[in-house]
Write a structure and sequence with these properties.
alpha/beta, Ribosomal Protein S5, domain 2, Rossmann fold, five-stranded parallel beta sheet, 17% strand
């Protein structure tokens, strides 16, 4: 007796088809799963047989059962194969309609009592199931655990059915149940999430110069580092930074949700992430946890979980040097490629990096309130923990002074995030209009904002005139900026001009951009 059914599993954030072939014969009792299964897949035997028995479904285990997971040369991971394996076994005994079984992609983990539990990557599999119909035109829809129905239901033109138990899945397959397919109102999700309260810049007293730098960073998608004494408000400002960023588009939300679905970090009862991620890992994090990895199961790291959002690194010099250095490639490419012996996985990592640090070990170097107790050599060693190449990739450097008591005592609040966000949105709209239809050279990635500009296009979109070139040349010679810092200054000046509503980069715009490079080595040492 033979049956075939379909499922899919993920590799990176993309899914691939797995055909589950089940062969049962009257022979010496045995149970074998072949096709490079991992431990969780091999252990499905115990879960599946117990779930069948506790669901009062007839199946004789005293036979030779062979289950093949094709293609056989790709490793299969996770517990999402339980439900399709069980349904394939039941189809060999006529308990389930084998022909109708081929019309669905199945996904789900089984509990011993027959309950169907949620799995990771349901959205990714649902998106792939829609594409599977090109090869398997008979496929009509997908059967998923009820807890995953929301994310799978985001996919249009695919009938998604939610089940809570193995018995319910069998009844649905045999036509004894006729539930309505899951439908998700995306507009309602975005509307409800937009009503949630956020941190607001109005709560921040003083620090107008730093707020201005954060506004420029948000408008152009630039990375930023804040240096200041403890208690000056660096973390407070960083936590409010997402409140001035543009809202996620549906495509951005979908891609972000795919990453969190695979990682298993999607909040319960959440179908779609509609707010930009804000990730703030502790400084004890390892390099693999930051960029992603694993010896067998390659999982996304913090930089991918921050995709289309913000990665905040507080106390930057406290991170291990090797951890910080692995950020260099994804900051340039917007993606991270993780290679292992058997596979290579690419995860998106298009995030904004916001960093905060003290100016010295005691935190008081340059403070007008407290005296610094650090030796000059200690300050240099502390600063040298952050390499020049990494600083080059951070567009905006800004010092955060301690807030004066007069500022703290004021009853009036600062400018609210909503007003700042309106200016940011206007600047982003100018950039999207300017770069419409333009791709990164040699890539399919579109350019949406100024920070995406490659060096090849800088002189086309960031013309600064003869006076501007003279100012920049003088700054380069005096402060020892690198070639990469030169490019960053041009990009930031383009953003400052966009905030001012100007198509021309003036010397004033360029001068403001130059002052945001005050942590480059020669200047800092001076």
């Amino acid at each position: 007796m033979f049956s075939r059914c379909y499922t899919a599993t993920t590799q990176g954030i993309e899914a691939y088809t797995v055909e589950i072939e089940t062969h049962v014969e009257a022979h010496v009792p045995g149970f074998a799963i072949v096709g490079l299964p991992d431990s969780a897949v091999r252990e499905s035997k115990e879960r599946v047989l117990s779930a069948m028995k506790n669901s009062a479904l007839t199946f004789d285990p005293n036979r030779k059962i062979t289950i093949n997971l094709a293609p056989a040369d790709i490793r299969k991971e996770g517990s999402g194969f339980d439900l399709p394996i069980a349904m394939g076994m039941l189809a060999t005994g006529g308990v389930v309609d084998g022909d109708r079984l081929k019309e669905f992609v199945l996904l789900g983990e089984l509990a011993l009592d027959g309950t169907v539990r949620p799995v990771h990557g349901a959205l990714n599999v649902a998106l792939h199931a829609k594409k599977m119909r090109e090869k398997f035109p008979q496929i009509k829809g997908m059967i998923v655990p009820a807890a995953n129905a929301g994310e799978a239901g985001l996919v249009n033109e695919l009938e998604v059915y939610a089940v809570t138990s193995l018995r319910q899945a069998v009844d649905l397959m045999n036509g004894l149940l006729a539930p309505d397919p899951v439908r998700v109102d995306v507009e309602k999700i975005f509307r409800e999430d937009s009503e949630h309260s956020h941190f607001d810049f109005a709560e921040v007293k003083g620090q107008e110069a730093v707020k201005r730098a954060l506004e420029v960073a948000a408008a152009g998608g630039h990375n930023l580092i804040m240096v200041g004494s403890p208690g000056s408000g660096k973390s407070m400002l960083a936590k409010r930074f997402p409140s001035i960023l543009p809202p996620l588009t549906f495509d951005e939300a979908l891609e972000t949700t795919k990453i969190h679905s695979v990682a298993g970090t999607l909040p319960p009862h959440t179908a779609l992430l509609t707010t930009r991620p804000f990730r703030a890992p502790h400084h004890t994090i390892s390099d693999a946890a930051l960029v992603g990895g694993g010896m067998v199961n390659i999982r996304p790291g913090e930089i991918s979980l921050a995709h289309h959002g913000v990665l905040f690194l507080d106390e930057l010099p406290e991170f291990q040097r090797n951890v910080l250095e692995v950020l260099r490639q994804p900051l340039e490419d917007g993606a991270i490629t993780i290679s292992r012996t058997r596979m290579t996985v690419e995860y998106p990592a298009n995030f904004m990096l916001i960093c905060a640090m003290n100016p010295c070990p005691c935190g008081n170097f340059g403070s007008a309130i407290h005296a610094c107790t650090c030796a000059e050599g200690a300050i240099q060693r502390y600063m040298s923990k952050i390499s020049g190449p990494l600083l080059d990739r951070i567009d905006i450097h800004v010092e955060v002074p301690s807030v004066k008591i007069e500022e703290l005592a004021k009853k009036s609040s600062g400018e609210p995030s909503g007003k700042i966000r309106d200016r940011v949105l206007a600047a982003r709209e100018r950039q999207q209009e300017r770069y419409k239809g333009i791709l990164q050279p040699g890539s399919k990635r579109r350019i949406f904002k100024n920070s995406d500009l490659p060096p090849k296009l800088l002189h086309e979109f960031c013309e600064i005139g003869e006076e501007g070139r003279s100012i920049l040349k003088m700054a380069m010679s005096r402060m020892g900026y690198s070639a990469r810092a030169y490019d960053r200054i041009l990009k930031v000046s383009r953003t400052i001009a966009d905030l001012a509503g100007s198509e021309v980069i003036t010397p004033a715009h360029l001068s403001e951009a130059i002052q945001y490079r005050n942590l480059d080595r020669q200047f800092w040492n001076a």
